[in-house]
Design brief:
The protein contains five helices and 18 strands. The radius of gyration is 18 Å and the shape is globular. The chain has a seven-stranded antiparallel β-sheet with strand order 4-3-7-1-2-6-5. The termini are far apart. Helix content is about 20%, strand content about 35%. It has about 260 residues and is of the alpha/beta class. Helix 3 runs parallel beside helix 4. It has two domains: about 80 residues, Beta Barrel (Elongation Factor Tu (Ef-tu), domain 3); about 160 residues, Rossmann fold.
Length: about 260
Amino acid sequence: MLSPYKRFVIVRKKQETKNVSYISFDKNLKAKPGQFVMVWIDQGIEKPFSVANSKPFELAVAAIGPGSNALCEKKEGQEVFVRGPYGKGFDYVGKRWLVVGGGYGFAPLRFLIKEGLLKNKNLKVDCVIGAREGQYLMQPLEHKAVKTIFTTDDGSVGLKGTVLVAVEKLIKQNKYDCIYCAGPEKMMKAVALLAQEYKIPSQLSIERYYKCGFGICGHCSLNGWLSCYDGPTISGQKALALPDFGLFTKDKAGRKIKI
């Protein structure tokens, strides 16, 4: 029986933020922005990560738990085993985007912008990147068609406050074909509500606790919508119709907990 895992070797690592390691591997991975992979790290640890780039395959890993810490501690030349990609990627809509990323949720959005620019030379992107402090801000994509605004909760870099301090102002000033958003779920819900109010299509990336990664175990179910299989990307309109969106998630045991 063929293994679903592919072997990848770390060829380069850099520290992107205080807690995010950006890891490049030795091969490409055929993946779309918004999809994720399951990474077998060590000692029975397997964790999901959003794809941060496909050519070459890259991950932006926030060290927030045993699995992500173990991956961040790996050195250049060491290997991991990867299955996937899984899930549904973002759809490319129109030629004027507002892209909103909170914390390390910006990683798949940077991939989206990069691919979008390759597909549409007329694409223009306004980008809002937020974090609680400047040392946690992800790096923007440097391109003449991309304008970036930073926000921080403590005001150490850019505008003081959440991404919302910039988002509503930009929506009032510009006409967007689509708003793309990833990050903390409460933030995404607020952005989706703004998009709905101003009648702008939106796409979100809702990530839950994944075990199987392809819709069998049902652990990532959000009111019957399977994040790993039906998502992780979803329209803002559909997300807002899910009663638990932005309010409840599940822990490792499957218990519903408040966000």
